[in-house]
Amino acid sequence: MSILQTDNLTFSYPDAEWPALRGVSLSLEEGSFSIIYGPSGCGKSTLLKLLKKEIAPYGKLTGERRYAGISYGEIDARTAASEIGYLSQDPDSQIVADVVWQELAFALENLGTKPGKIRARVAEMAAYFGIEGWFHKKTSELSGGQKQLLNLASVMTLEPKVLLLDEPTAQLDPIAAGDFYAMIVRLHRELGVTVLIAEHRLEEILSEADRVLILTDGELKYSGKADEIGAFFAKEEYKAMAAGLPAAVRLYTALQKYVGGESYKTPLSVTEGRAFIRANFGNEIRSLSEVRSEESDERKASEESDDKETSDRSKQAVAVSVKDARFRYGKHSDDVLRDTSLTVYEKEHYCLLGGNGSGKTTLLSVILGTNRVYAGSVNLFGKSVKSYRDGERNRGLVAMLPQNPKDVFVCDVVREDWVLACKTMGIKGDDCDRAIEAMAEKLGTKELLNRHPYDLSGGEQQKAALGKVLLLNPRLLLLDEPTKGLDAAYKKELKSILKALQAEGTTLLTVTHDTEWAAELADRVGLFFDGDVSLSGPVREVFSQNAFYTTPACRIARGYYDDVMTCEEIAALCVANKNAKDATGREGGAS
């Protein structure tokens, strides 16, 4: 039985040049588990909000929406509120109470539920979700993972039949994201709730899906089984979108022609990816160095130059020096930074990993100068951060893209925010217009300039916020989760932008949960734990040692190939082994 259905759904935002959704028709069976995948701005968030009646965006809507066979216009408010649950990508946006237990009770109280039933339901949810240990805690003190789990528990107090989730792990670290999705899978299996998730991070969840829906340019391009998507993404026009899929799927699309084409089911998880390469490719050649030994002298010389640059990093000038820093938010609160030390060299890209709530963002704030340590030192380019005047720091020295891009915006139109950045740099009039147009062209955000920043999708907000920050032309750029909510295509563009900035001399310090991003961009990485940087070193060295804070490709290859971090590196070894085996076979046949 279909529980959610749309027929020829088309939607346009006010003054938008193109519809956000165009003729979308779908039907979700009761108890199904479906994933919506597509690039930023393709309409995923818009579709989910249209399916949650109370938060449906304003604009021109045609087509039909039905819940359990009933038109949305005929669904009463209580049914819409209680039976269709919704979770956004921002953990803070749905929390309304100061204390955890109050948050759990809030929705039930709003629906006029009797006090005795509220107490029983809240107790059940707290126990089921493992919230007892922080039941009386202030919501402001929770980590991102705890906040999102609380949001989920609060939604489930109403016992919804449908769960709509809009990139719910966008702000969570890999461990917290895995725990969150384990709970979603449990709810689906034990309660039979229908799940529809819009997500860029599919590594943890794709293998659980009954069905995948692929949106691009507001149109539904694919609706089918998860283990059949490999053939879809092997098509030339959709290959670029495959970059955001789990490592196992990307390996399959890259190596499909070697294993019998479309007849082989698409591997979806690390386990299936490991089985796939072991079943189809040997490992006589185990490392990239063996492959590269046969490559051109020019490439080897280039790589030797890169290695030398990394080994000589300690001889470079220091951009950021944090030594034995201690910081706490209140006089009687615990220290967040505990004798923290970190060195970032000029012109390098350093990525900092770590769990939610570990203090990474706090460390960025003391480097930025918005918070001051009470012990230890923080220096930027050889001077104490305290010695720089605020205006001096803001103009061409250091700037930060925060974790929540909404924090960057103070105006009702993106262009006006960018104008403010230009004014900070002393750029006015026609020069300001030219700077804005050049940045919009560089980031591909021309169509966003005249929109309200809060009307943008998460990925679009990130693009617009980055543009404002880059207009400040910082010598040191701090990025807090810059890939959050971004599709693979834009991450590729952003990667090029940041590489160009680094080549021009900008120093980059990134806090990220995206290990693949770090593997592709970072010179060095560190792991932040217990108030300090507990592990720091060259990116390949660190990821080869880690079991969890490493790339999915590294986990797929571990024990079979050596020192690989990316799918491209695994594919290169697979092809090298395949070619070596074929060559041996030909030699044997010739003899």
Summarize the entry for a quick read.
With 591 residues, this protein is of the alpha/beta class. It contains 21 helices and 20 strands.
Instruction: List the domain count as a whole number.
Output: 3
Characterize the quaternary organization of these chains: single chain
Net shape? globular
CATH superfamily descriptor of the largest domain: P-loop containing nucleotide triphosphate hydrolases
The residue ranges in which pLDDT falls below 50 over 5 or more consecutive positions are none
CA distance, first residue to last residue: 64 Å
What composes the largest sheet? 6 strands, mixed
CATH architecture assignment of the largest domain: 3-Layer(aba) Sandwich
What percentage of the residues does DSSP assign to strands (E)? 15-25%
CATH fold-level label of the largest domain: Rossmann fold
> Count of helices?
21
Average pLDDT, rounded to a whole number, is 88
Q: From the helix content, strand content and strand pairing, which structural class follows?
A: alpha/beta
CATH class of the largest domain: Alpha Beta
* Helical proportion, percent range: 25-40%
